[in-house]
């Protein structure tokens, strides 16, 4: 009998979903598309089917929106009917969700190179276009350095702790890596890039001062003149809001110690680069002593790979280490930062609970000094695996190889009469890590060695061709052979004792075990098996938008032309990137109805800060009174007031209606009148933080409309979260604000808000492709189904749970809030218990206790099918019955399945579970059967 069950007749493929004009093909239907004539003789069902598909070509059935959007059209009809009250059509439904005065009727959303795109583009065409764009980038080994280096990623293929054990363990590995190499006891993985990390170090130094010093009118943060230029630019954008003066000095000079001491109580802290942007390494012990004597903190921006050979900052007196682990297998236009405080901790039974410290912006709001929200967790995990793969000895060998090559370049250059900058710490003046400065007349190139021999060849060729005199200009082969004979092929990589590392690092077994590709692959898969992701079930995290990231979108970011482009490489080498970026910026500007875009912010919170800073700088250029007050609803995400405070604005909260969640217009009007002369901006979230389209929103800005619109590409536009980043949070602005957008280089008029001119550039092709693949109609349809899926869940759950904040029609926007507060009294059950219990049903929980404590915010996205939505509802309904059992005294208030959830598999977690029972192989070999469909399935009635 067991074998008979395994050898049932072949089942037709899963029912494909057609576009707007087609019915769904059911399993019992023939997969053959008949002509209308043939269909007319095949029964009414076949005739209707053929009539429905007649307007379409066969290729129209194979469209990206059809696969991206979960429910098909027949299911949409069922879902519309299931609403309370039912809706007769999509148009009627949308009119009940979105207020008429803001509902857009325009069909020209996307502007691509000046042409509106309403049609859906084929995935193959988009892939070909992406390949063409990538190939038009000229890929050279970059000589620029300044914190960005070419790297080779080995070709190995956080929310609820219990089902995020894999990523938490990997992040703990990353933290161990950072802590060991920097020589500091505590580390985290939650910042964006080196410039952002340096800004956080500045505000951290400010917060560490006594309150009396924080309030002083004169507050100075000292920065080394050898800090990477882009880092200094980002710090400038932050320092203004905190009224901190920046003083750039040569911290390696004896005079700098006297200057720092002279600042006295005004000193906030000091930032140095180690190794610095010109490749030099300094002994900062005396500087550290001087800073500490003033009661301030010393921060070191550093390179993790260099710290395998150099004395770690924690051993020579640094209080904060920051920088980038981009050297560890990350493309050079991205950065995994090295930040500063604890993320995870280990408990009994090898469990890793998330130990996120409460984000200060949610508690302190307008008094917060940080708005960090999105992390670079995916890149941190990549760096951790890179370190595990190479191990401590492999990483050290890489660092020594770079030093060897840099010294070889230095020696060859000097052999040809090109003077180089000498290290003051080395008795022979040799470079101490990977960067050589050539003194070649007016042009002084910076050469940073890369990860393979070919880089050395290109560097030497550039030195000889561009820096040598005409009579010295010889071929690379001749030059190299002649120079090596004179200087020797193997200059020593030995370092002076003053900066040479002697302490151990990466001694944990995880960094000394998985050095073969096979072992690393198994370790990665062991970790990922502990995590729930979208491959398992929907992740209904409200405010996070965990939707499908399509394969076509993801594949193109691996194209070579998008990978190792230096962020500051010449424009002529990045024509492809510039075309893609220009098109994406045009798309976003058209969608938002704005005139200009900056995609530099690499998180949502950073986009908030960038947008408010644009407004702030605009007002500073206008005559009249200072306009620095920003009105923000009390319901807003904590990053909103924190971002405003960071931009130097004063936050005035606006009340919300406790019943509807909408803005209190009377309070808004009163606040506007009170602060009329100083009012600079109002910042709102739309749809609102409570998940509804407020009907009176147009009364807020009047007829002028919005001036800045901030977006999250890592949510709405399909860039994956990766367990917490990387992200892209662009801003779109009106024409008058374009001059105040973030600068695209350290030398630009406006400071940068990220370390790279285009933020996380390597993931921008994802959103570009999404817009191309969806087209105007596809994006509109995705929005409709986002709203329908949310309202369908709301309608099905409303009989079982209290729902907060719907509009006057009982509808929500793309998310809604399920109220768990009544259960605390009735059953001793809270939102966290429901969240834990959902794991037993195979689901990640919705967002918990935000924006209202002890509630669950649910967002399904357009990618989820009706079947998955129903499965999620069934789980929550079953959980509601379990709560009712507690309420009715059938089960105890403590020790029930909710209080004990989730229920783990324990010691057998590494076992692979077969999907079928025992198979009789011999019987199957001797009893073959035909896999073709039975005759009755192919005959006509």
Automatic annotation (TrEMBL):
One example of a Gene Ontology biological process annotation: glycine decarboxylation via glycine cleavage system
E.C. numbers: 1.4.4.2
Glycine dehydrogenase C-terminal domain residues: 782-903
Database matches in SUPFAM superfamilies: PLP-dependent transferases (SSF53383)
Domain called Glycine cleavage system P-protein N-terminal: residue spans: 66-333, 352-441
Any single Gene Ontology cellular-component annotation: mitochondrion
Record GO terms (molecular function): glycine binding; glycine dehydrogenase (decarboxylating) activity; pyridoxal phosphate binding
Cofactor needs: pyridoxal 5'-phosphate
Keyword annotations of the record: Oxidoreductase, Pyridoxal phosphate
Known catalytic reactions: N(6)-[(R)-lipoyl]-L-lysyl-[glycine-cleavage complex H protein] + glycine + H(+) = N(6)-[(R)-S(8)-aminomethyldihydrolipoyl]-L-lysyl-[glycine-cleavage complex H protein] + CO2
Signal peptide from the UniProt entry: none
Region (Disordered) residue spans: 331-351
Top-level lineage group: Eukaryota
Protein's name in the database: glycine dehydrogenase (aminomethyl-transferring)
Organism from which the protein derives: Parascedosporium putredinis
